[in-house]
Design a protein that fits this description.
The complex is a heterotrimer. By secondary structure, chain A is an all-alpha fold. Chain A has 14 helices and no strands. At the A-B interface, α1, α7, α9, α11 and α12 of A face α4, α5, α8 and α10 of B.
Chain lengths: 339, 294, 293
């Protein structure tokens, strides 16, 4: 087992290195003068030259690369051409917001898709299952940003049930301690803060979750069907195990492993979708940061965001894989067989 | 007839597909989807000519007209007919998605073929390389790439091809690996047929089915992603009628003139759905055992 | 075996059918009878072998006792300890499963849930009946020990994937026997194992039966393993019982042509290798038996 963990960690380290390298290559692919881009459009020729030296663009490419890697490890992603602040600072400010949004989206997805998938599997072939399958046919066909706009319009503007912009109303924000408004509300703020934060996050999170609910539910349904057809289910019944436990402890617990893998992929997709949703709802997350940087031609900030997002994704994939290994002994035996 | 120029017995894929979908027993939903795909592809080519009004003509007097007799889907804030713009945007959205899928598939298959034929270290290196690309969510990667290139529809296409080929390469590599180790290929190898020949005449053609399946399913997602990028403004500049840009343009008017953003969104959804269903149907036909539990 | 004792299980004129209308190919039809009109009884400690080829209905007959296939329609009577099981409410059946009657299946590789520990799975018949977890696990360890699974206490936390086929069958048996059932139904428990392991498992079943006074309903297609195992043999063919005898009588003077055919097709060490073994169909045809094709 330790062998597997080490291998997985090594893979993650490699992926991190790979992401940094890829972003480095992208940063050198910029058409035109890199230094001019980095200095920003309003820079004077002297400032551009200064930038050239600062970025080390006069040095050999290999040295530049080494510097870049060092920077990635120490948290120096360069300076924003637009705000002139260290990029890592800007990212750190907004990252919690995105993470919170994505977590909430995943929460909604799980809460809806899991029971739906299990229920559909149990009702296989009967009416309910067919109805669900039709619904589930909307597998990610709906563009997330359009859904966000429509949700905002219907539930925000027309029905007025939810606010349509930002993370908090004026005066509704909790003290900014961790950057996670929900956590801050719970720990340091008031119930009103919590309500305010949640209501602002609900529509964006719903928009994020909707396209994936169908995929996850279908996956759960499929895995459950396979699991429930297994011999160990019959054996469990013959031991007198009640149906509830048969379905959950034997069926679902067994189907869970494969679902977890999809879950990990989902996280990556959601981060992407967050970029779109944040711009629609005017939330201050890394997505908005990326968008603003693009609009302002702040290429290095864009690339810095890309790199951070890559790091986050590698990290979550690692966590999901390790969790999978912990929860599903089959992974371990497969690894042993291979080793 | 020697083994390496024996014809492989593959029934015409399109033939089977049409027969299955149009013959008796094809699920209604799938046939509708196929018809829809047909319509979309036709529109993608002749759309602009069918437009009742000039998609780019500005007419301040007629601005923000709700859907009605004169303008079936209404007009936007500068008086341009939404329906005409939808039709004009069809080629932009759909054909660029097709271009992306074709491009990434070609590159992906090429890389996968090289990896299959290459010595172990090169194979591993290439696959590690694709893994790295896959460590960054594709939209984010494509977005980063468009930031590096100049914003335009072409940039989006290039960026997306670069972001999507690794996934295709990996999947194709797995398929090829399977085919190359199958019994009949082994037999051919024993007879002295070179690996290159094996690849070109046996492995690749027999892997095409699976490649089609993957490509058709990709198409659905690509349409959505391209629109997403266009929505963010990294595509063609404002007067562009591609559906993503249209949604962006109508965003601010959603409460007063909901039709500007609503219809392009519906168009994208319908297109993605249709292509997705057809892709699913192709997958089921190709391998009836997969997704049986679905 | 207690000869004069009242039977534990009494099956009278049991028929099993697929109800009208439920057909995969879409065709609607009347009931499809899979097993017709079978009757038998099992006494305490008695070992009964139910023999037949694939498709004879032997598994279905056994599974019907515990009602493991709820979609099938049962008619007739199955009485356990005097209580009628056909048509009984589900909680009654659930009470009997694992506690009065237990079952083990053909493939030990798939009978155990790969994501749960064997400790949990062996203890399950007890834990679902309210026995506290600690106690149940202790009894599980005892049971595994009794069945000669090495290092039982430690292995409680292992997963099925870590055991070999023969060992897994012992684990399965431990789970079946832990509730102290009075009848064990064994559905082809040796078919998926290699010969050497087969023998071990058969010996184990006979041993447990003798020591614990456990009655066994043993299902198999292999008549050759029945001789050392069973007191009573029932031969089944196409959903019907064709012969029901004590084991010695059956082998000495089989009455039904099908039985004779089955016995005749067992290869023996003493048979002449140049003489072709007769097949059942040939035998039936030659002897004008109940073969109706």
């Amino acid at each position: 087992m330790a062998h597997y963990v080490l291998r997985r960690l090594a893979l993650a380290a490699f992926a991190l290195w790979g992401v940094a390298t890829l972003v480095f290559l992208m940063s050198r692919l910029i058409p035109g003068d890199i230094a001019a881009v980095a200095a920003g459009r309003l820079a004077t020729p002297e400032q551009v030259e200064q930038m050239r030296v600062t970025l080390g663009l006069d040095r050999p490419l290999v040295v530049q690369y080494a510097d870049y890697l060092l920077g990635a490890v120490t948290g120096d992603f360069g300076v924003s051409a637009y705000t002139h602040r260290p990029i890592v600072e800007e990212v750190a400010e907004v990252l919690p917001s995105t993470v919170q949004l994505v977590l909430m989206g995943m929460f909604i997805t799980v809460v809806v898709a899991l029971p739906l998938g299990i229920w559909a599997a149990l009702r296989e072939g009967r009416g309910a299952d067919a109805a669900i399958r039709i619904l589930l046919v909307l597998k990610g066909g709906i563009p997330v940003f359009w859904l966000a706009i429509v949700l905002r319009w219907v539930f925000g503007s027309i029905l007025g049930w939810f606010p349509i912009t930002g993370e908090n109303s004026i005066g509704g924000a909790p003290p900014d301690v961790t950057g996670f408004t929900i956590l801050d509300s719970l720990l340091f703020g008031s119930f009103a803060n919590l309500r305010d934060s949640v209501s602002h996050l609900f529509l964006p999170a719903l928009a994020l979750s909707a396209p994936f609910i169908s995929t996850l539910a279908r996956n759960v349904r499929s895995n459950m069907l396979t699991a429930m057809r297994s011999d160990y289910i019959t054996f469990a019944v013959s031991k007198g195990v009640p149906p509830g436990r048969v379905v959950m402890r034997h069926g679902f617990r067994s189907a869970f492993g494969s679902t977890l893998t999809i879950f990990g992929l989902q996280f990556g997709w959601m981060i992407s979708a967050a970029v779109l949703v944040e711009t629609v709802f005017a939330l201050q997350g890394i997505g908005s940061l990326m968008y603003k940087s693009i609009v302002n031609h702040d290429t290095f900030a864009v690339l810095g965001s890309v790199m951070v997002i890559g790091f986050v994704f590698v990290f979550t994939s690692l966590v999901v894989d390790l969790l999978h290994m912990l929860l599903d002994p089959r992974v371990r035996t497969a690894q042993l067989a291979r080793a | 007839m020697t083994i390496d120029n024996a014809p492989f017995d593959r029934v015409s894929f399109v033939g089977v597909l049409s027969r299955r979908l149009f013959g008796r027993g094809g699920p209604v939903v799938d046939r509708l989807a196929l018809v829809m795909v047909g319509i979309l592809l036709v529109l993608a080519v002749v759309g602009p000519w069918l437009a009742p009004h000039d998609p780019y003509a500005v007419d301040p007097i007629a601005s923000l007209e709700p859907p009605g007799a004169a303008y079936w889907l209404g007009t936007d804030d500068t008086g341009r007919d939404v329906l005409s713009r939808l039709l004009a945007g069809a080629p932009l959205t759909i054909l660029s998605a097709v271009a992306v899928v074709v491009g990434s598939t070609i590159i992906g298959v090429f890389v996968a073929s090289v990896a299959t034929l290459a010595p172990r270290w090169l194979d591993d290196a290439l696959m590690r390389c694709t893994e790295i690309f896959l460590s960054i969510p594709s939209l984010v990667l494509a977005l980063g790439l468009t930031a590096v290139l100049r914003p335009s529809l072409t940039s989006i296409i290039i960026a997306m091809v670069m972001a999507l080929w690794p996934a295709t390469a990996r999947i194709t590599r797995n398929i090829l690996r399977e085919t190359m180790t199958s019994a009949y290929v082994e037999a051919a190898k024993i007879m002295g047929v070179s690996r290159l020949r094996l690849m070109l005449r046996h492995a690749l053609p027999n892997s095409l089915d699976a490649i089609y399946v993957h490509a058709s399913m990709e198409l659905s997602g690509t349409i959505v992603m391209i629109s997403g990028l266009a929505f963010l403004g990294v595509g063609a500049p404002p007067p562009s009628a591609d559906w993503g840009s249209m949604i962006a343009q109508g965003q601010d008017f959603i409460t007063t003139a909901w039709w500007i953003s609503l219809f392009p969104g519906l168009a994208i959804t319908v297109a993605a759905l249709a292509f997705g269903l057809v892709g699913d149907a192709i997958r089921r036909i190709n391998d009836p055992t997969s997704g049986r539990a679905q | 075996m207690t000869d004069g004792a009242a039977p534990l299980l009494e099956v009278e004129r049991l028929s099993i059918a697929v109800p009208a209308g439920r057909r995969i190919d879409g065709a609607s039809a009347g009931d499809l009878t899979l097993v017709s009109d079978v009757s038998y009884a099992i006494r305490p400690g008695e070992r009964v072998a139910l023999v037949g080829e694939s498709g004879s209905g032997k598994s279905l007959t056994a599974r019907a006792i515990l009602r493991l296939d709820p979609g099938l329609r049962l008619s007739g009577s199955i009485r356990w300890d005097g209580r009628e099981l056909v048509g009984a409410p589900e909680p009654v059946l659930r009470g009997i499963r694992g506690a009065d009657i237990a079952m083990i299946f053909q493939d030990p590789m798939t009978a155990l849930n790969p994501v749960l520990t064997i400790g949990e799975q062996v203890a399950e018949p007890l834990t679902v009946r309210g026995v506290p977890k600690k106690e149940a696990l202790a009894r599980a360890a005892e049971m595994l020990d009794w069945l000669r699974v090495p290092r039982a206490k430690e292995r409680l936390r292992s997963y099925p994937g870590e055991f070999s086929g023969g060992m897994r069958q012992r684990v399965v048996m431990a789970a079946a026997l832990i509730g102290r059932p009075r009848l064990l139904i064994a559905d082809e428990p040796t078919t998926a194992l290699d010969v050497r392991v087969q023998e071990q498992v058969l010996d184990l079943i006979v041993e447990q039966s003798s020591e614990l006074g456990l009655a066994v309903l043993f299902i198999t297609h292999d008549l050759s393993i029945v001789a050392g195992l069973a007191h009573q043999v029932i031969v089944m063919y196409r959903g019907e019982f064709v012969e029901k005898r004590d084991v010695d009588g059956l082998f000495a003077s089989p009455r039904h042509p099908y039985t004779r055919g089955l016995i005749g097709s067992i290869p023996r060490l003493t048979s002449d290798p140049s003489v072709r073994l007769s097949t059942v169909d040939e035998y039936m045809a030659r002897n004008g038996g109940a073969a109706d094709e």
